[in-house]
């Protein structure tokens, strides 16, 4: 990989070449929906929501080790299976919630939603996961390995834009890179191994599998898929690509509607039947009522989506309904960073190489288990166990903390604390709440360079890449039967090498695609 990143790749652009390439990228992205709503600073008084702008994107695909890419894709269905099993294990999740809920009101409230529904009885056994497992390449001497950053179980975004990014870079490699002036640059930029990426179609296939499994309405209503979104969603086009893929030519029509999370109680009701079907009244035509077969949450993953008790009642209504939830509350909780930490960390009394929590779900000697273990990095609790006390000493040391990131139980960018910010943050938190966080060793990726187009301006320099692999899984919470389990494409996010966070929607990273090396 190092030979590929030295010398002529990525090409050094002359001013005129940069100007042409930027204009091509701007036009292509808008023409093909590789776009976002502009931030308020750019949108100004766009009260009608008519503006769109190019999503932040690299001008060239980034080199990525082929062996690491193939390993990440191959292990995804095993990860799907693992998290389906975790979602079914209420006893295990109870222990995980107990560990963090004292210092995390959001997690406690989510758990309370589950307990309320459990008390009256769940009516839907099926659960759907549209997952994404995120990795970085760790360089250890001469070897390159993928190490898991996190596993996302709710609102795993950018599957729609990722497909378009791969198509953009293929277009540039075919039509634009050959026009560069340097012969070595032309050779490097046109002989690229650019894998196909059907993430939008793959994720849509998971939604369709759940929709089909739900079956026709017993009440005589047409059935639909309901996307629950955030108000003022800037990443709307990413979500639209999934919607359009559900109704692509040659497939049976699947009605899809978008509903702000804050409007759930206004436009949905539960049927007065033992199975509590979720009914959606179309706001534009209240005479039309649909039975919701699948609820796909692109909101509800953070405290900001629950400003009042009414919002929690809305989540309760969804959870207790007969709709197939993506995700259920239990599946969302399975994505806690605490779960990731416990899966990767051996218990103090465990002398085996396989953490006992992982062995709870996977046979210790199986090939699947060994494949999972290879992707784990060093993660520690911040509790009062011996491992936790050791981690606390690392986290509070001004020198040792430079190797770590501290994470709360949150999804989305901008929530983590890096290096010297760790002891500063811990000083603000009562020690009895430290166990609501986990401490992860920072993954050290190989040095790369690229050019990022963001808000019309080009940023050139060192970059860090994070690979996400999507997976779709439909299972029965009662019987454990897995009815659908597929790997569903990939996402490559890239950020400047001085940036700690990588979330594109949060304004830190950008869209990218892989050039296999």
Walkthrough of the structure:
With 517 residues, the protein is α+β, with helices and mostly antiparallel strands. Helix content is 36%, strand content 24%. The protein is built from 19 helices and 21 strands. It has helices spanning 2-5, 15-31, 40-43, 66-74, 76-88, 90-100, 105-120, 159-175, 183-190, 199-214, 236-246, 264-267, 309-320, 329-334, 337-344, 356-359, 367-375, 386-396, 421-426, and strands at 35-36, 53-54, 57-58, 62-64, 126-140, 143-152, 223-229, 256-260, 268-270, 278-281, 289-297, 324-326, 379-381, 404-407, 417-418, 438-441, 448-454, 457-476, 482-496, 510-512, 514-516. The strands form five sheets. Strands 3, 5, 6, 17, 18, 19 and 20 form a seven-stranded antiparallel beta sheet that branches. A hairpin with a 2-residue loop joins strand 17 and strand 18. Helix 8 packs antiparallel against helix 10 (199-214) and helix 10 (199-214) crosses helix 11. The termini are close together. The model has no long low-confidence stretch (mean pLDDT 93).
């Amino acid at each position: 990989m190092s030979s590929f990143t030295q010398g002529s790749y990525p090409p050094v652009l002359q001013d005129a070449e940069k100007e042409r390439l930027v204009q091509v990228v701007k036009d292509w992205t808008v023409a093909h929906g590789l776009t976002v709503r502009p931030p308020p600073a750019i949108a100004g008084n766009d009260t009608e929501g008519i503006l769109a702008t190019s999503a932040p994107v690299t001008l060239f695909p980034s080199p990525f080790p082929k062996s690491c890419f193939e390993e990440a894709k191959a292990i995804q269905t095993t990860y799907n299976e693992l998290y389906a099993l975790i979602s079914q294990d209420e006893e295990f999740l109870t222990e995980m919630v107990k560990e963090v809920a004292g210092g995390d009101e959001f997690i406690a409230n989510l758990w309370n939603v589950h307990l309320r529904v459990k008390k009256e009885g769940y009516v839907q056994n099926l659960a759907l996961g549209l997952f994404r497992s995120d990795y970085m390449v760790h360089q250890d001497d001469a070897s390159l390995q993928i190490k898991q950053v996190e596993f996302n179980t709710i609102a795993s975004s950018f599957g729609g834009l990722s497909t378009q990014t791969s198509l953009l870079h293929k277009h540039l490699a075919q039509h634009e890179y050959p026009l560069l002036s340097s012969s070595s640059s032309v050779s490097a930029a046109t002989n690229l191994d650019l894998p196909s990426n059907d993430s939008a179609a793959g994720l849509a296939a998971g939604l369709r599998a759940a929709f089909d499994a739900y079956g026709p309405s017993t009440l005589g209503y047409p059935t639909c898929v309901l996307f629950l979104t955030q108000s003022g969603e800037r990443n709307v086009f990413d979500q639209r690509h999934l919607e359009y893929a559900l109704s692509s030519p040659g497939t049976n029509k699947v009605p899809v509607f978008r509903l702000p999370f804050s409007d759930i109680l206004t436009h949905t009701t539960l049927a007065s039947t033992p199975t509590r079907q979720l009914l959606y009244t179309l706001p534009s035509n209240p005479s039309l009522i649909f039975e919701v077969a699948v609820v796909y949450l692109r909101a509800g993953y953070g405290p900001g989506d629950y400003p009042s008790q009414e919002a929690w009642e809305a989540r309760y209504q969804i959870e207790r309904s007969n709709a197939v939830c993506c995700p259920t509350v239990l599946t969302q909780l399975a994505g806690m960073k605490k779960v990731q930490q416990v899966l990767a960390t051996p218990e103090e009394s465990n002398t085996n190489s396989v953490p006992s929590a992982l062995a709870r779900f996977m046979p210790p000697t199986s090939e699947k288990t060994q494949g999972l273990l290879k992707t784990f990095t060093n993660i520690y609790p911040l509790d009062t166990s011996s491992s936790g006390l050791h981690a606390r000493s690392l986290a509070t040391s001004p020198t040792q903390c430079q190797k770590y990131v501290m994470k709360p139980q949150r999804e989305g960018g901008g929530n983590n604390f890096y290096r010297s910010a760790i002891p500063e943050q811990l000083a603000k938190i009562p020690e009895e709440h430290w166990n609501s966080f986990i401490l992860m060793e920072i993954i050290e990726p190989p040095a790369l360079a690229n050019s990022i187009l963001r808000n019309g301006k080009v940023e050139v320099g060192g970059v860090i890449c994070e690979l996400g692999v999507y997976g779709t899984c439909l299972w029965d919470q009662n019987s454990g039967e897995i009815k659908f389990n597929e790997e569903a494409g990939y996402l490559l996010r890239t950020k400047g090498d001085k940036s700690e966070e990588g979330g594109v929607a949060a304004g830190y990273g950008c869209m990218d695609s892989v050039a296999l090396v």
